[in-house]
Amino acid sequence: MRITRDLLLRLAKENTKERAFNTESIIAAYLSGSLLQDEPLLGGTTDIDLVFVHNSPPSQPREIRALSPDIHLDIHHREEKDYDPPRELRSNPWLGHELYAPQLLYETKHFFEFHQASLRAGFDEPKNLLKRSYKLLNYARKIWLDFQLNDADSSPTAILSYLDALHHAANSVAELTGPPLAERRLLLDFPARAEAIERPEFARGLLGLLGGTEITASSLNDWLPAWTHFYEFAAEATGTDIRIHNARQAYYKSAIEEMLEGENPLAALYPLLLTWTLSAKSLPETQIDAWESACLLLKIGGEHFESRLDGLDQYLDDIEEMLEKTVLSQGFEIAEIV
């Protein structure tokens, strides 16, 4: 099947219409994510990011539904009160960008018109932009602090927290020039964001903290069979993170393979390591040797984890110093932003 943006938009509208007709609690629905861009495909695959807003607590926060081997719906269910008060969304780095310029698919009670108008007023002002950036940075710093208060190990749970911290740290930089970057494209798109603020060292630092300076693209290729085995096992296990879903395997694998064949093959490292770690978390400890060996090679696992946390600490300090200079250059006080 030939996948075009027009086809994807039609599928989004048809599925939204069907769901809204059959679910009385839905008061609004909109499209977000990669489909709003001109080139939503990566590796010939994509997801259709839908948000359904309910007037009562939804039964589940997120669901995945396959439409074909290469296309799936990624539906986020939110409650109406999640958007109140709308003016506070101006400093929300995730929900703020999501609601700022999506494609409206369904609406009742003028929900969208009211909330978006309140959000957009002042959204691009430097103060709100810096608040969003600091929120992302502070989230990453909290993860680092949690490691200091508890014995740091290199289990899948700990590595996931570490990767989450890096994702938020990078997005605190990316926020200065646009919306946060998704996990699949993080290392593809982050260098341009760092270059846009004339701090390319942040991109090099991110790759280094992921262990990208310890390996070559051939290592990632060598890991793909084990990654596939882990993913397939975890997707059938109970309690696995929803991101590791049968409908999303091609979404990740095809994107990883395309990046490995591109000009920046190490851009595949973050989505590969993230999803492999998510999968490893659902496997018995006795069956994750391949993942542990990869983490050791990346100098993230085992005895290396403490030094990686030290590197994360310095990385967060460098970003904070940059943000402080930006705040002062705009004529604000730090206390006004943080």
Helices and strands in order:
Layout: H1 5-22, E1 26-32, E2 46-54, E3 62-68, E4 71-79, H2 95-100, E5 103-107, H3 111-120, H4 126-149, H5 156-174, H6 186-196, H7 201-209, H8 217-236, H9 249-260, H10 269-281, H11 289-297, H12 305-329, H13 334-337
Parallel strand pairs: 2-4
Antiparallel strand pairs: 1-2, 1-5, 3-4
Helix pairs in contact: 4-5, 4-12, 5-6, 5-10, 5-12, 6-7, 7-12, 8-9, 8-10
Provide structural commentary.
With 338 residues, the chain is of the alpha+beta class. The chain has 2 domains: 5-120, Beta Polymerase, domain 2; 126-319, no CATH class. It has 13 helices and 5 strands. A 5-stranded mixed sheet has the order 3-4-2-1-5, covered by helices on one side. Helix 5 (156-174) packs parallel to helix 6 and helix 5 (156-174) packs parallel to helix 12 (305-329). It is globular. The N and C termini lie far apart (49 Å). 39% of the residues are buried.
Proportion of helical residues: 40-55%
Largest sheet: 5 strands, mixed
- The parts where pLDDT drops under 50 for at least 5 residues are none
Number of strands: 5
- Portion of residues in beta strands equals 5-15%
Provide the structure class.
alpha+beta
* Strand order, largest beta sheet: 3-4-2-1-5
Question: What is the succession of H and E elements?
Answer: HEEEEHEHHHHHHHHHHH
The rounded Rg comes to: 20 Å
Distance linking N and C termini:
49 Å
Q: Estimate nothing, just give the exact number of structural domains.
A: 2
Mean pLDDT level: 95
